[in-house]
């Protein structure tokens, strides 16, 4: 038996001999229980009964200050039960601590994770009455038992989650949050995923978010359920960012949160959908940089004592660094060769995994239109507009009520109007009717592209119009209606006048406006050059105008008969094969000539002609026998021979008609499987053909090269010339900086130049550098007597003395020479 005191106990050591009673602390008893669990089971039971009695006393008055030994006893029971007596004893301790937090004996049964439990009925309000030290000790003990595997995860998840909703202790909430996230990460660590447990936890999170969405009121105060929903959304976002829960169920939880009336819950979900790809890309890049920096730094012990152990360690680190460098270079080469394959392995944007994007966009749009000025802040409304327009652009939805709403926010005095114009751009796609886009363009033109606006506003308006027209090119297409419909459309929207009006801003006095106008002119030259005047079409526009280039009308679709550029790839490979065979033939001819010369010189001229004839006869017999065995395959073989001949011989694709070219493209696309390198080559060939179509000079150059037989001389076999943009590009997103005025330096006036000169003079007159004068300035002010014996002076003097000594020795040598004596006459 043992008698417990405040911080120690009195126990008799188990032995056959009689020993005196020794006072032991709880830490010593914990060590003895770990060494001999069976021998100290009675002492453990005594401490267990003591804990039950202290907890009963605490439940009578939770607000009272606890005894100092209770916190230590809770930690002792959690550590010993989870390590030495795991099983029934650990379950009893865990149930006791949960009852203490809940405040009832049946609280643990109420906290079961099922679909019928209500969140309000299971909120542990008793945890608010406990002392903060006791509450923290209970939570720490349960976390310790969970980390040792003594408590299942589902048993603690809901209790900890609900504690976060009611407890005002910030540090405790953060520790609970990090424990839940790390626990779920450890469950799914190293590829060992527990899908059943993940599904149960995700169902619990979705139930909390749904309860918050059903009970919340727009503009109302946050309830404990709303705070729990915030934490659920935050955990789901964190686990998705760490690639633990990147599936459709997590996206469905966040989509439910995005439809919640609570502003904070909705904002967290919307920010996730808008920024998750960029955040994950930055995390991946920073992790790679940290890993590379860790391998790059090698302690060479240059200033340490040289030992064999340190030499081995240095050699090991150098080898690891070289191995990492080789792996990094190989990874770069693989990305260069299989760029498309690597891109296909990337994570799909979370916004693409939405189950019902149309319903979600309509819900948020209805909430924006119905909410007043006091319901949501302006920043929240902008976030909702950004998400709705992104969903419409990514999924190509038809949400016609969106575009009149955007016109309300397109005033020149509107706050964050550049961001609204960017949202307007990203909401447009090729399936939007032109009649819905025309009012947008008119509103932008009336509010931004006028002489009363500033240069920056005009540049932003022109860039926004260009971006919208590039996404909806059918706006510029001609209306082929007849009669009254054509007259009505021409009276409401004159495309040619609108295009030429904006093209006139290319010669504006403001530089940013002129840059935006030139961008508009270049865009129209590429898409529909017939709308421009002849003087504005340029060389590229004139070539496309002659070719009849114009955008497709609304609803018109150009079906592809094969892979674009397949016929060009066939022509390129045939030309390359013909050039290679010709080169091999030339080498063979030169080798035969050299061989005949050598044979003639050495005398090896005799060749058995009969042997050659016999070999030829054997081949002919074999062919005849094969023809006799399968005479019905003769016609198919002729077709194959003709096809092989056509593949071997280079074909001029430019001489084929449109139907023949489409047939060849379809034939090549259906008879072979293209690799990643071949797709890249076809892309280069198509871009080359399009440039030649736009530029008559390039077309004439290619024609001259074709006459010389060097049609594909400018194309290389490697993909080193492909553009490798390492920037982060999110699908469907439009950055407001893309349509802003170009920040070019404007030409300064005479007054501005004079002001800059005066500012420069003042800057140099009054030194802005902190501290005294530099050493160079001090040296410049020294007298010559102080500096003539300096190191630099002595060095210069030494050089001069050396030169003088060399000259003196030279004169001495010349003086010692024997000169001819001259006699006096």
From TrEMBL:
> Where does it reside?
Nucleus, Nucleolus
Q: Where is the composition biased (Acidic residues)?
A: 589-638, 714-725
Which Gene Ontology BP annotations are present?
Answer: protein transport; ribosomal large subunit biogenesis; ribosomal large subunit export from nucleus
Q: Where is the SDA1 N-terminal domain?
A: 119-478
Sorted alphabetically, which InterPro entries does this protein's record hold?
ARM-type_fold, Sda1, SDA1_MD, SDA1_N
Show the SUPFAM superfamilies listed in the entry.
ARM repeat
Protein name according to UniProt:
Protein SDA1
Q: Give one Pfam family, short name only.
A: SDA1_HEAT
Domain SDA1 middle, residue spans: 604-760
Q: Where does this protein chiefly localize? A: nucleus
Q: Map out region (Disordered) in residue numbers.
A: 581-671, 687-733, 787-825
Arranged from A to Z, the UniProt key words for this protein are:
Nucleus, Protein transport, Ribosome biogenesis, Transport
Which family is this sequence assigned to? Belongs to the SDA1 family.
């Amino acid at each position: 038996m043992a008698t417990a005191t405040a911080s120690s106990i009195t126990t008799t050591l188990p032995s056959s001999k009689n020993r005196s009673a020794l006072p032991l602390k709880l830490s010593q008893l914990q060590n003895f229980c770990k060494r001999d669990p069976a021998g100290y089971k009675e002492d453990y039971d005594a401490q267990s009964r003591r804990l039950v009695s202290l907890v009963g006393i605490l439940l009578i008055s939770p607000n009272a200050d606890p005894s100092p030994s209770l916190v230590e006893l809770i930690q002792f029971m959690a550590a010993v039960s989870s390590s030495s007596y795991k099983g029934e004893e650990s379950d009893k301790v865990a149930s006791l601590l949960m009852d203490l937090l809940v405040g009832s004996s049946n609280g643990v049964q109420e906290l079961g994770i099922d679909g019928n439990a209500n969140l309000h009925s299971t909120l542990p309000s008793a945890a608010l009455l406990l002392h903060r030290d006791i509450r923290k000790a209970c939570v720490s003990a349960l976390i310790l038992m969970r980390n040792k595997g003594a408590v299942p995860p589902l048993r603690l998840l809901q209790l900890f989650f609900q504690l976060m909703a009611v407890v005002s202790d910030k540090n405790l909430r953060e520790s609970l949050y990090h424990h839940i996230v790390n626990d779920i990460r450890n469950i799914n660590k190293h590829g060992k995923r527990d899908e059943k447990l993940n599904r149960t936890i995700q169902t619990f999170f979705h139930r909390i978010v749904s309860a918050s969405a059903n009970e919340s009121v727009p503009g109302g105060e946050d309830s404990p359920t709303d705070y729990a929903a915030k934490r659920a959304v935050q955990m789901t976002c964190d686990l998705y960012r760490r690639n633990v829960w990147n599936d459709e169920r997590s996206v469905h939880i966040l989509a439910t949160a995005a439809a919640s009336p609570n502003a904070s819950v909705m904002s967290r979900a919307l920010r996730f959908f808008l920024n998750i790809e960029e955040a994950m890309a930055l995390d991946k890049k920073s992790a790679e940089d940290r890993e590379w920096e860790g391998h790059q730094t090698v302690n060479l012990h240059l200033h340490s004592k040289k030992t064999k152990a340190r030499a081995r360690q240095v050699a090991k680190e150098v080898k690891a660094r070289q191995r990492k460098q080789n792996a990094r270079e190989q990874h770069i080469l693989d990305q260069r060769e299989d760029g498309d394959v690597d891109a296909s392995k990337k994570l799909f944007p979370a916004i693409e995994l939405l189950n019902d994007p149309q319903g979600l966009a309509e819900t948020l749009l209805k909430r924006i239109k119905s909410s007043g000025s006091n319901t949501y802040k302006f920043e929240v409304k902008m976030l909702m507009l950004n998400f709705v327009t992104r969903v419409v652009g990514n999924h190509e939805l038809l949400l016609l009520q969106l575009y009149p709403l955007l016109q309300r926010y397109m005033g020149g005095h509107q706050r964050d109007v550049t961001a609204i114009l960017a949202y307007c751009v990203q909401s447009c796609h090729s399936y939007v009717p032109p009649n819905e886009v025309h009012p947008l363009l008119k509103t932008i033109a009336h509010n931004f592209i006028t002489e009363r606006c500033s240069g920056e506003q005009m540049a932003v308006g022109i860039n926004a119009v260009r971006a919208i027209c590039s996404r909806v090119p059918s706006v510029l297409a001609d209306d082929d209606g007849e009669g009254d419909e054509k007259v009505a459309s021409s009276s409401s929207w004159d495309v040619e006048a609108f295009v030429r009006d904006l093209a006139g801003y290319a010669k504006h006095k403001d530089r940013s406006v002129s840059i935006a106008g030139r961008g508009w002119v270049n865009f129209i030259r590429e898409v529909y050059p017939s709308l421009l005047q002849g003087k504005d079409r340029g060389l590229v526009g004139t070539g496309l105008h002659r070719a009849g280039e114009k955008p497709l009308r609304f609803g018109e679709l150009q079906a592809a008969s094969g892979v674009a550029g397949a016929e060009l790839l066939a022509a390129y490979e045939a030309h390359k094969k013909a050039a290679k065979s010709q080169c091999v033939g030339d080498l063979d001819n030169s080798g035969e000539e050299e061989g005949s010369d050598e044979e003639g010189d050495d005398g090896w001229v005799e060749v058995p002609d009969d042997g050659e004839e016999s070999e030829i006869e054997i081949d002919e017999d074999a062919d005849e026998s094969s023809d006799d065995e399968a005479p019905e395959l003769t016609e198919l073989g002729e077709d194959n021979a003709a096809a092989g001949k056509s593949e071997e011989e280079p074909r001029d694709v430019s001489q084929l008609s449109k139907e023949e070219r489409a047939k060849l493209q379809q034939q090549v696309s259906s008879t072979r499987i293209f690799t990643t390198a071949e797709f890249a080559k076809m892309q280069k060939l198509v871009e080359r053909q399009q440039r030649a179509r736009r530029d008559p000079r390039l077309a004439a150059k290619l024609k001259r090269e074709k006459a010389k037989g060097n049609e594909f001389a400018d194309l290389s076999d490697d993909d080193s010339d492909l553009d490798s943009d390492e920037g982060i590009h999110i699908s469907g997103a439009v950055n407001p900086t893309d349509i802003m005025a170009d920040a070019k330096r404007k030409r300064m006036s005479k007054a501005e130049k004079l002001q800059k000169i005066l500012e420069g003079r003042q800057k140099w007159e009054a030194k802005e550098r902190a501290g005294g004068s530099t050493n160079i300035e001090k040296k410049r002010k020294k007298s010559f007597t102080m500096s003539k014996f300096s190191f630099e002076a002595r060095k210069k003097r030494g050089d001069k003395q050396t030169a003088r000594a060399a000259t003196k020795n030279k004169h001495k040598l010349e003086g010692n020479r024997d000169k001819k004596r001259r006699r006096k006459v």
